[in-house]
Amino acid sequence: MVILAGGILYVAWYATDEGWAERLRGTIPQAASFSQQVKPNIVFILIDDMGWRDVGFMGSTYYETPAIDQLAAQGVVFTNAYANAPNCAPTRASLMSGQYTPRHGIYTVAPSARGDTRDRKLLVEETETRLDLEVVTIAEALKTAGYATASVGKWHLGGPGYLPTDQGFDVNIAGNARGSPPSYYWPYERENNLGAVVQIPGLDEGGKEGEYLTDRLTDEALAWMEQHAETPFFLYMTHYAVHTPIQAKPQLAQKYHGKAVSNGQRDSDYAAMIESVDDSVSRIVNKLDEIGVADNTVVFFFSDNGGVGTITSMVPLRGMKGMLYDGGVREPMIVRWPGHTEPGSSVDTPVISVDFYPTILEMAGVDHSARIVDGLSIVPLLSAGVPARGEPGPSGRAAELTALADRPLFWHFPAYLEGNRNTDGPWRTTPVGAVRQGDYKLIEFFEDGSLELYDLGTDIGETNDLAEQMPGKVRELHNLIIGWRDAVGAYVPTVLNPAYDPTEGSTQTARFEPGAEPMCR
């Protein structure tokens, strides 16, 4: 199916073999041009391991996030926003590339084969750990349009030779191959189990006793923005927080001691870490006002995966970081674009992190039609007066809105992740894939081929498996995901592990039963 609207060609690439072929050749232009307008600054605030309900605007009464809530009130909240993976590195690779995980090969945080080998029924290939330099990142694309670019904080897509400065960023502050900080306190280092000192790069100088990592990264970002106020800029503000280690400012943690538990949210140190992130958002937004660029700056707020189930609660969602139930992949998301977004509005159309790439490039007027991009621009969803589902869209953009609403979202995670105290077996997840189209979501477990079907429109907690009741819908979605995997060359593990021994290890796959309350840290 081909849709032509507003000069933009869309292909329903999941519908036909011809569509797949066109998609793979990267021949589908997806970006409208804003090149005749003043190029907006882009500030992308990415939080690590923040759950869907870890902010006030999504309903938390335990965590205090007034600045983030104000940002939500000033922009558009996406209630069905997804990361394309349940842990850090693959989401970040897809955000930078606009591609699903099979394209770039970063499926998980290495290693792919975690845990006791006797518990792994299948052999799995090792994931890539570095984003290929041939990938044209958001930063590289924006550089062609005259943008200044900075990555401040976590990178997690490779070390020397694969750092942000090798991938289109003018500046890299504190980013390397590491997925978590050695410490949140200056000098941001610790001794590992081999006796070597592990540090965050670039922050050893200029610090002082008592300095806190989230504050320091914000300081660096503010200084950089001020230096580049006269040119279009892209700030990738990628906090290490709220990833472990759970280390807070003691004075902030104290205020949460004794505060009433809210649907399983009860960790005072984690709450204080979130408050530090909120303070960072406040300072960034205020700096945009101070340097006079707020009206021409798009601010994105997003998390890379679900929260950690032993620390926070995703209720009413099922699951947590490391799982393809919504608790592992549904994220809090805000976009504020003055003059384009309607303050206080919300969008329920499902979107996914591969969409940021074409969205940002459309905003900047950068053509990406020569590259393979799996996401769709969500700019049509940002306009004032975005309709509710089923209602006609704004003139000239109805076809794009239809394409966004009708397309499927995919996940592919051919790896093992160990369980923890609130899983009932050795795994948070075994190799798994999923697809969501409309309100229906199908999950496929590769070890035994089992399929689960949920209607997220009526069952947000994924408590009622409809697979036996709706075999036709199961076949439809299963055929869809099989076709997608074939088209993108997705690796599916099928070889049995000769070391698998169900008599020695636990063979009970952790599926995180609905209604289970996450434990405290």
Automatic annotation (TrEMBL):
Region (Disordered): 502-521
Known cofactor(s): Ca(2+)
Alphabetized Pfam families for the sequence: Sulfatase (PF00884)
Assigned keywords, A-Z: Calcium, Hydrolase, Metal-binding, Signal
Molecular functions (GO terms): arylsulfatase activity; metal ion binding
Signal sequence coordinates: none
Keyword Calcium: yes
Keyword Signal: yes
Record-annotated Sulfatase N-terminal domain positions: 40-366
Entries under PANTHER family matching the protein: ARYLSULFATASE FAMILY MEMBER, ARYLSULFATASE G
Family membership: Belongs to the sulfatase family.
Name recorded for this polypeptide: Sulfatase N-terminal domain-containing protein
Lineage: unclassified sequences, metagenomes, ecological metagenomes
